[in-house]
Amino acid sequence: MFKKTTFAAALLAATVLSGAASAKTFVYCSEGSPEGFDPGLYTAGTTFDAAAHTVYNRLLEFKKGTTETEPGLAESYTISDDGLEYTFKLRPGVKYQTTEFFTPSRDFNADDVVFSFERQLKADNPWNKYVTGASWEYSAGMGFPEVIKSVEKVDDLTVKITLTRKEAPFLANIAMPFASIVSKEYADKLQADGKMNQMNQMPLGTGPFSFVAYQQDAIIRYKANPDYWGGKQKIDDLVFAITPDASVRYQKLKAGECHLMPFPNAADVAAMKADTNLKVMEQEGLNVAYLAYNTTQAPFDKPEVRKALNQAINKQAIVDAVFQGAATPATNPIPPTMWSYNKAVEDDKYDPEASKKALEAAGVSGLKMKVWAMPVSRPYMLNARRAAELIQSDFSKVGVEVEIVSYEWAEYLDKSKAKDRDGAVMLGWTGDNGDPDNFLDTLLGCDAVGGNNRAQWCNKEFDDLVTKAKETNDLAERTKLYEQAQVVFKKDAPWATIDHSLSVVPMRKNVEGFVQSPLGDFAFDGVDITE
Asked: Residues of the signal sequence (predicted)?
């Protein structure tokens, strides 16, 4: 799928990591490999960090450290009185990156915005299916093909987006990574040359860093974009050193082989805080980890079976073992720090005896099932294998035999979407825009079945509530509807909610300017390394 670097390029990457390069180089020990470099096609934070937050921009961006939007490629916007037309005034003079594989001949303009959205919205667009097996999962899961009526160029620096209905979170949604703006000129050249897949292998955008090379599962290299509209970065070179094992990431950080790492083992955090060469940032994570049953497959198609299994899971034991207490057991599918969180919802009580009796009452005996465990660390689940082992032990106490399965990360994400998937898949979510819709509709809406909705759960009562909530700008009314939706969710139990975790980011003490994101992003614009 990806272009591999030559031996010489790999050697150069190793030189950069050793600190021998003269340019100011920042090394990020990332937790996994990207699925690709076209953020519109994917949903994983690993991929967004490697593409959306380095190479690309969006019409609106999230202000660093917040869930508030601010101008990005659009300097301003207006909304019609009926809430259906959004007119964006684009930033003039924005340059696309000049790379070894493409030299742009014009600035960013409205044609790029129209192209970036239409390729996701229109099935007959030649770019709609340019990557075999991939889909515009985020766009489809959020209902964009139904919500967006048209995207029109008014003039070179003005774009009008017309909706079919009011959509309260729309502005926050288009600030998300999947709505990144790509170059139509670059796309046209690739199409003419018969190299459309290159869009997903060699990205080109307006962002702070230009893509240089990728050695699959090993290293990604970028360089500062000298023409970036936000100003050239203080870092000359940015390196993603792909390091799936958290212990190895920590060793590299201590040795000075990388400047910052994500998702440390909870057991290592105290030592990190005591190390005078390091500093550690912490904040409440806007996240949830969950175990999604396939609600279309027997016996998981019965709510009483799902609730019985939930009673067998000792979530506090998972929090203690995996997070050393730096997380809390989850009750709802949204975190307690998010507005509209329903405090009145009661969690399924851990009660193995009650679980066993409920399974017997539902006619379930001798159940054998698979529990899928992620191969990578995520903020909401630092060690999925360990959590799966604990669930395996819990389920064995109620007569359920569990086989733990896993796959390489990109394959795991792809296979877990299958509507006929067996067993229950462990996954999670870090909010992308600070709106409850980004959890409730994106992960559990009927439009997301076969995509982000890994439970394959379509509940009309739930779906009507979250859809209605999107169609009003009245915050009190939206809150009421989302609170009701959480009650329906808990009653039907498509997931076992597991935890909400604390987000911990360790780095070398000479790293300056990094801002921890409530959205779980790792973005390096504005970052510097001091002597």
From this structure: 1-23
